[in-house]
Specification:
Four Helix Bundle (Hemerythrin (Met), subunit A); Helix Hairpins; Heat Shock Protein 90; five-stranded mixed beta sheet; two-stranded antiparallel ribbon; 8% strand
Length: 466
């Protein structure tokens, strides 16, 4: 089944923004509609409360005015006062009808209807005079006060209803906001994955490229631009691999080609030094010595180039038990003349140690470290070879007396063709390859090689193998 990939990175980004904004836009629309509804509800309820409260107060005031007007009419008997009384009574009756329509549950309406009928019968002057001091006016006032209380109670209920509506709306807004936040977060994570996942794949391939490991051949899962970039990394790996092979082939050919004429040069220099072709003058003997020394130096450089080339190609090897004592004894025998000429003394551990390693690579490490200690150690100084082992790792140290390596050179001396500021003793000069080859060999064995501080020696190299 063919996997569907976004056509371009721009499409992924634009689609991500669009899909993330959609729920946010929906939330904004929902919240605006809910707030609009709440605003309308609050406005209507507040207007109704104000109208009802104002109407109840007006009814109470009209009841007082009706009482005053009726008493004036009973005293003066003026028809104009009667007309005013009739107008006030009609107004009161209309307001009470409106109030009953707005607040229908007040129990005082029956009493008020009865009192309105009584007031309507007081339009006769004789009866008005007889009832002008009636206690029923007090009943009218009390009934209007009860109507105001019922109105305020109804207004409180309306306010409570608005509060409950606000609380319900706030909960709804919170739920919608939470849902939108979760949905937006999921969309953000989805599109972040769609972008980061192929980037991580490309990063992994770049790291593989830097480590000399063949990158994954599968296509990158992502936009077309990143897929093409992944293919370009594979193409770059093939090109680098081809160039690396050409470099190693060139070094191998050059090294082997140089060894043949070098052997002839050394043989000729030896013949001249032995004076087999005739006696030599002192100047000629000095020239022969120069030929011998530089030919040996050239041979050492060629051998180290071959070692470096072999290590760089990461050839497969098998680990076998390697005894350290015989290895160190053979090295001491090789460097015996140099050690005697400088007056150096080598201290080896008394107990034996066997390491699981490749013999060739382990000898390269120890040879370069020992040669370094002999060449840079102080005349008449001590050289210590120490080793040990625990449950997790084994270690070997080569330490010597002499000038300490400056702090800023402790890593640089492990780079190829790099030498420190300390002068090497002896006729042959260093190539700057020994420590680099030693560290490469240690890494290939799954270990580490570096400088460590030592209380007994000025310089101490430690090899650690797991």
């Amino acid at each position: 089944m063919t996997r569907v990939r976004p056509r371009s990175l721009l499409q992924v980004v634009l689609m991500g923004f669009a899909l993330v904004l959609m729920p946010l836009g929906g939330m904004i629309w929902h919240d605006s509609r809910a707030l609009e509804h709440l605003s309308q509800l609050t406005s209507d309820e507040m207007e109704r409360a104000v109208r009802d409260t104002r109407r109840a107060t007006l009814l109470t005031n009209l009841a007082v005015d009706l009482e005053r007007t009726l008493r004036r009419y009973a005293v003066l008997g003026d028809s104009r006062i009667l007309a005013s009384y009739q107008q006030q009574l009609g107004h009161y009756r209309g307001l009470l009808k409106e109030h009953q329509a707005s607040i229908p549950d007040a129990p005082v309406y029956g009493q008020l209807d009865e009192l309105i009928g009584w007031l309507d019968g007081l339009q006769d002057l004789t009866r008005a005079k007889a009832e002008s001091t009636s206690l029923r006016f007090e009943d009218l006032s009390q009934a209007n006060m009860q109507l105001e209380v019922a109105t305020r109670s109804q207004v409180d209920e309306h306010v409570l209803r608005v509060r409950l509506a606000i609380d319900a709306l706030m909960k709804e807004i919170w739920w919608v906001s939470g849902l939108v936040a979760v949905l937006s977060l999921l969309l953000i994570l989805l599109f972040t994955y769609l972008i980061i996942h192929p980037v991580r794949q490309i990063e992994s391939r770049i790291l593989s490229l830097g480590a000399g490991i063949e990158p994954d051949k599968k296509p990158v899962d992502g936009p077309a631009e990143l897929v093409v970039l992944g293919e370009r990394i594979g193409w770059l790996h093939d090109k680098l691999k081809e160039l690396e092979q050409q470099k190693y082939q060139f070094l191998r050919h050059v090294s082997h080609e140089l060894k043949t004429p070098l052997a002839v040069l050394r043989e000729g220099a030896d013949l001249l030094s032995e004076q087999l072709v005739g006696p030599l003058t002192p100047d000629q003997q000095e020239i022969c010595q120069m030929l011998e020394q530089n030919s040996r130096r050239l041979q050492t450089l060629i051998e180290r180039l071959l070692d470096f080339n072999r290590l760089s190609q990461q050839e497969e090897f098998e680990r076998v038990p390697v005894a350290l004592t015989p290895l160190l004894e053979s090295l001491c025998a090789e460097y015996r003349l140099t050690l005697e000429s400088k007056g150096n003394r080598v201290h080896l551990p008394e107990r034996e140690l066997t390491l699981q390693a490749d013999p060739y690579r382990l000898r390269l490490i120890i040879d370069n470290l020992f040669s370094n200690a002999v060449s840079y150690g102080a005349r008449g100084g001590q050289i210590w070879i120490r080793w040990g082992q625990d449950e997790q790792q084994s270690w070997l140290e080569v330490a010597n007396e002499g000038p300490a390596i400056p702090q800023d050179e402790r890593e640089r001396i492990f780079e190829p063709f790099e030498q420190g500021s300390i002068a090497r003793e002896g006729v042959l000069k260093g190539s700057g390859m020994g420590l680099s080859i030693a560290r490469e060999s240690a890494i290939s064995l799954g270990g580490e090689l570096g400088l460590v501080d030592d209380g007994q020696a000025s310089v101490c190299f430690r090899l650690t193998l797991k």
